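Expect chain and fold; thus:
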Amino acid sequence: MNSARIYQRPKNAMQSGRYRTDQWVLEYDPLEPQRPDPLTGWPGSGDTRNQLRLNFPSLDAAKAYAEREGIPFHVVPAPTRKLKLQAYADNFR
């Protein structure tokens, strides 16, 4: 059986706010490594579970789903937020 990882969605590098960072994602670990397609050269594999991402509103909901479906999982802790506080005048020093 394929295991899964549960992690909190990180902030997108293109956004300044924290939209959808409170959601949790369940993602399957790959069963086989990706290999280049002989025709196009694009990476791919026969494992279709790596295309599946399930979003949940909380960690408990994600854990409950995995336990109910019998999916072994591990939780990746969210990184701590580091605030970089600076004044606008610091740009002109």
About this structure: The longest strand covers residues 4-8. The first helix runs from residue 59 to 69.
